[in-house]
Amino acid sequence: MKKIVKENLPALFRAIAAQQDLFLPIKTAGQTNFGLWTEEAEVDLETLKTVKSGKDMFFPQSETLYTCLKDDKKIYIKPEALQDRNFVAFGMKGCDVKGLEVLDRVFLADPVDTFYAARRKHGIIVAMACNEPETSCFCKVFGVDCAEPSADVAVWLTSTALCWKAQTEKGEALTATLTAAGLLEEATEADLHHVEGEKAVTRAIVEKLPYMNLSLEGWNGEALNEKFNSPLWEKLYKGCLACGTCTFVCPTCQCYDIKDYKTGTGVQRYRCWDSCMYSDFTMMAHGNNRTSQMQRYRQRFMHKLIYFPANNDGMYSCVGCGRCVEKCPSSLNIVKVIKAFAAEKTNEGGAR
């Protein structure tokens, strides 16, 4: 394991950015999100969760796919170049890294999404362990260890230093470069002991969180008809504003729309995030196959907890980051859905 004292972190960022793009949590107008590092950027490694997840670095909110141009009577297409330069995603938390595993199942399956695949190939993830998980967190329910994230490099921020552990070939290569530059040094036994202590404290906090014992019993591909036809959805969706906030802060939501934009010299085709909570989602000439907000609300959670695991070896399309718990203006989040169905099951058992 390596380390760097906290005072030298700007030098570390500078050295990484000199060779490749560096994205990390940056505070702007009071909100922290991943952004491109510059000398003027206000780096914020203390905030537990960025407002939007780190998926934006691999699956951007908006990206051009190609441009159609006209030269006299000839029309030709200019494809957008794929990512061909390495970049570092620094400071992602364990839940967001797990979110990329979910996106991999979607975008790296045949037919492979070449834009996403290029970013995954060239992206180097330096994941940061959580120090103080919040009450909205429930990542352990979905198999995430926030005290020891799985990534190219895992780092732990202590009171005096950043401890650094390479875990893949990509991570080893980045580590070797920074060590050769004199920025990383060998961690001492005291540093290792401190990190183990931090892990133990974090895991102890996780065990006391209010949603830690959230049960996923009954949520699997075999329960499709039972869950789909439950009358509970008619009660749960009330109050949904169809704002789409839950989908835009979610690390695993992958829906997108494709649009055309007239530039004046041609037409750009681009894709942008979309939301299954919107009334015009997947709208076609004949209309929409989900005609009520209840159906759209049900679709979101059925996909997370039933459809996705049924088609992906039991992997859920939720990582327990808690962003939807924090951001939904009506508190209609996935925790509420899971708890409501669990309570119904308990009541049914008592009634018998």
How would you describe this structure to a colleague?
This protein has 352 residues and is an alpha+beta fold. It has two domains: 2-208, no CATH class; 221-345, no CATH class. The protein is 35% helix and 21% strand. The protein has eleven helices and twelve strands. The strands form two sheets. An eight-stranded mixed sheet has the order 3-2-6-7-8-9-1-10, sandwiched between helices. Strands 5-4-12-11 form a four-stranded antiparallel sheet, with no helix packed on it. The longest helix is centred in the middle third of the chain and has 20 residues, at 189-208.
Biggest β-sheet description = 8 strands, mixed
Report how far apart the termini are.
Answer: 57 Å
The H/E string reads: EHEEEEEHHEEEHEHHHHEEHHH
Structural class: alpha+beta
Number of helices: 11
Please estimate the helix content: 25-40%
Outline? globular
The value of Rg in angstroms is 22 Å
Number of self-contained structural domains: 2
Low-pLDDT stretches: none
- Residue-averaged pLDDT, rounded? 93
